[in-house]
Each structure stands twice: as structure tokens, then as C-alpha cells.
Write a structure and sequence with these properties.
This protein is α/β, with parallel strands linked by helices. The protein contains 15 helices and 13 strands. It has a domain of 204 residues: Rossmann fold, CATH 3.40.50. Helix 10 links the parallel strand 10 and strand 11. The longest helix is centred in the middle third of the chain and has 15 residues. Bound molecules: pyridoxal-5'-phosphate and zinc ion.
Length: 410
């Protein structure tokens, strides 16, 4: 890994070599990848990146990249689309949507998995594994299949049928646990110590989480190498939020952004699983675990690994972490669909509902150029919308159509 110096404990600062290890042996703090930013700065340019692949790997110098063949289905370089109709409805001058549902397995998790499995393979692993709230399972199973690796995916037993189907189709093992994601995660932490498997979000988590930075890199590049004024990020473990924030800062560190970013980062959760939002509201530093009961299953992590760091990051930049009511999730999904023609999953509903609230309360001002991260697609979470019946035509006639439309002429 050309520009990677090693791993470092986020708590005590101890250094470790590049290895499949995610916690510090001395203080149990999380390990993070350390780069030689001076070396990166002397090599990366806007033009060089523009000529790179249309995927997360255009930012390879800012990722763990062991060299050699990557595990790559083409994740990343998703559109940043202007959303004028939603902006007008909310009362914003300029709103952008980052459409990460357009990734190969239709969520932002393809970014982190491509990085995690590329690293895992360089360590010699042949089995990819994960604890998942749904989307990660899809991404791990697909990337493993594409790389000729085995996969073993652990999920809670109450996931949406679309997410289960979009995992089993790739032919890996899918094991469902009677319990929440947090129970699944505990099991995986135990297995990771025992089996020679690359758990993307356990033993190779330091590399996995770096993949989330590419969301920030792309947003900045797509805005013409500028940082937005505000961003709304859905929060499960808190990894995406902290890494988005870190990614923006790194662009400045290596000279790709001339001005230091002042982006205000806001986190979004649903009330049924909102441990980070609750800690934020209470002014607490520590996140107290909860039992998830939310329709936004992809965000259903009751004991979020990066919750503490997400709190610290939003406080440092003047942001917030909001919990929206459960019944606002489907409303957020339909608001986005109705105004912009985009069908997002529940996590996107949480993000849009949070954005709506932040603008309504004046926390995001009308003139703040805002980006909302739409991290997955709606076809995977049809259950969230309830039964949506079409209007039944009594007979196939012009009169029946006019009658069905209630006499409204369109
Ligand atoms: C996993 C996930 C997130 C957030 O993940 P973090 O654990 O906070 O990094 C957001 N949206 C979707 C659709 C997800 O699957
Ligand atoms: Zn430590």
C-alpha cells in the first residue's frame, strides 16, 4: 500500500503495521489507516483524478490499495443530481442528492466492500464475511462472487425479503440469527477470533471504513472541487458520517480543496433506533445502547461502533443528529419520489425527513447549499410503504376511467 504508513489507535495513538486487526491491544480503541499525506499531495492532481476510472478507485492514493487486482464491481462515481422541485418544496435555494442507490448492489455499501475485500484478498483471505443490516450482506455476497471468494453473511431474521433475496442469489451462505443486528455483530466478533474469515466490518473494519470517504471525494469533485455548506447523512454505526467528514478534510490536507471545508454535517436516525441522536440531544459524550425497533432496518444498530466519534464530529462542525418519528420515514420516501422521481429505501426516507425538519426549524438555512446522501433504493424495502393498491377499474371503458379519476380532468 504505497501511501499507507500503517494503522493507528484513535484513542492512545499507538502504531500498528498493516494487518487484519481492528482494535488496539492496549486500550481497545479502534484502529485507523494512517497515510503519508505529503507523498499523496505531491502526486495527486485534479486532472489525474479526472482521467482515472469512473469508480471509487479514481481516488486510489487516498485509499488502502495493496496494488494488484482489486475486488471491483464498479462501485462509486454515482450521480450528484440537482433536486430543484424538492428544494422548492422544502424551502432551500440549492439542494443536491447523491444517488448511491445506483451502485452495483444498489447501496453505498459497495464502496466499503470493494475496499475491504481488496485488502482482505491481499492478506490471503478466501472467505468474505459480515454482520449486516441488509445492504452490506448484498454487497459482500456480490463482491465475493465476482472475486471467486466464498461468503458467509450473518443477518437478523427480520430483514426485508428484498434484501434477503438480493443476497442469497449470489450463492454464498446466508445465516439468520434470532435477534437484532447487535446480537449478530457479537457473534461475528467471536467468530472473527476463531475462523480465518475476513469479516469486512470486524477484523478488516479499518480498511472497510475508508471506503466511505469516497462519498465525500465525489461530492467535492462533482461540485467542481468545492465543499457544500451542509450535508445530511443517515447514521447506523456512524462510520459513513465520520468518514465523510474525514474525507472532506483530507482533500484539503492533500491540496485538492484550496479552502478548508466548513461543511456542517448533520446525522439522521429514526426514533425506533436513535441512540446517537439521543446522546446528542442530552449533551452526552457516550452513546447508551438501545434495542432497535425501527422500520429503517438498514439503520437498526443499537450499539453503534462509531457513535462516539459521530457525536464528536457533528459537535465540532456545528451540526446535529436528529431522530425523526417512525411514521415520517415512509413520508420521506414518498416526498422524494413525488418531487424528484426517485425511489429510495427507508434510510433515504430518514434522510429526507431529517432534512425537511432541519430546514423547517431553521437549522439549515435557505441559502446553505445542501447535499443529502441517498444511500439505497426503495425496491429493497417495499414493506415500509404498506399495501399500495392501484385504483380498480370496474370495466374497461372511458366512463369507468373518468369515474375512477373522480371526475378530475388531467
Ligand atoms: C449501512 C447504511 C448506512 C449507514 O451506515 P453506517 O454504519 O453509519 O456507516 C446508511 N444507509 C444505508 C442504506 C445503509 O445500508
Ligand atoms: Zn490504543
Amino acid at each position: 500500500m504505497k501511501y499507507v504508513e500503517g494503522l493507528r489507535c484513535r484513542e492512545c495513538g499507538r502504531d500498528y503495521p498493516v494487518a487484519p486487526q481492528h482494535v488496539c491491544e492496549f486500550c481497545w480503541g479502534p484502529l485507523e489507516v494512517v497515510y503519508d499525506y505529503d507523498a499523496i499531495a505531491s502526486e495527486v492532481t485534479h486532472a489525474g483524478i479526472a482521467n482515472g476510472p469512473e469508480s471509487i478507485w479514481r481516488y486510489a492514493p487516498l485509499l488502502p490499495d495493496p496494488g494488484g487486482e482489486r475486488v471491483d464491481l464498479g462501485a462509486g462515481w454515482t450521480p450528484l443530481r440537482s433536486a430543484p422541485r424538492l428544494a422548492a418544496e422544502l424551502g432551500l435555494d440549492k439542494l443536491w442528492l447523491k444517488l448511491d442507490g445506483l451502485n452495483p448492489t444498489h447501496s453505498f455499501k459497495d464502496r466499503v466492500v470493494s475496499v475491504a475485500l481488496t485488502t482482505a484478498r491481499s492478506f490471503g483471505y478466501n472467505v468474505a464475511a459480515c454482520a449486516s443490516t441488509g445492504n452490506l450482506a448484498n454487497a459482500v455476497a456480490a463482491h465475493a462472487a465476482s472475486a471467486g471468494m466464498e461468503s458467509v453473511v450473518f443477518i437478523p431474521n427480520d430483514l426485508e425479503t428484498g434484501k434477503v433475496a438480493a443476497t442469497t442469489v449470489y450463492g454464498g451462505r446466508v445465516l439468520a440469527v434470532d435477534g437484532s443486528y447487535d446480537d449478530v455483530n457479537r457473534l461475528c466478533a467471536e467468530l472473527a477470533g476463531d475462523h480465518p474469515w475476513a469479516f469486512v466490518n470486524v477484523n478488516v473494519r479499518p480498511y472497510y471504513s475508508e471506503g466511505s470517504k469516497t462519498m465525500a471525494f465525489e461530492v467535492a469533485e462533482q461540485l467542481g472541487w468545492r465543499a457544500p455548506a451542509a450535508v445530511v447523512v443517515p447514521v447506523a454505526s456512524g462510520s459513513l458520517l465520520t468518514k465523510f467528514n474525514k474525507g472532506l478534510k483530507e482533500l484539503h490536507t492533500v491540496g485538492l480543496l484550496t479552502e478548508e471545508p466548513t461543511t456542517v454535517v448533520h446525522g439522521a436516525q429514526a426514533e425506533g433506533c436513535s441512540p446517537v441522536a439521543r446522546a446528542f440531544a442530552q449533551g452526552a459524550d457516550e452513546v447508551r445502547p438501545v434495542k432497535p425497533h425501527t422500520i429503517a432496518k438498514s439503520l437498526g444498530i443499537g450499539n453503534p461502533a462509531d457513535g462516539y466519534y459521530a457525536l464528536r464530529d457533528v459537535r465540532a462542525c456545528g451540526g446535529t443528529i436528529t431522530a425523526v418519528p417512525e411514521d415520517a420515514v415512509a413520508r420521506g420516501m414518498t416526498l422524494l419520489a413525488r418531487t424528484e422521481g426517485l425511489f429510495t429505501e427507508t434510510a433515504g426516507g430518514v434522510t429526507i425527513a431529517t432534512l425537511e425538519r432541519l430546514v423547517r426549524e431553521g437549522i439549515i438555512a435557505r441559502d446553505q447549499e445542501t447535499v443529502a446522501l441517498i444511500t439505497g433504493v426503495g425496491l429493497k424495502t417495499l414493506e415500509a410503504l404498506g399495501p399500495n393498491q392501484p385504483t380498480h377499474l370496474e370495466e374497461t371503458s372511458v366512463e369507468a376511467v373518468d369515474h375512477a379519476l373522480g371526475g378530475v380532468s388531467l
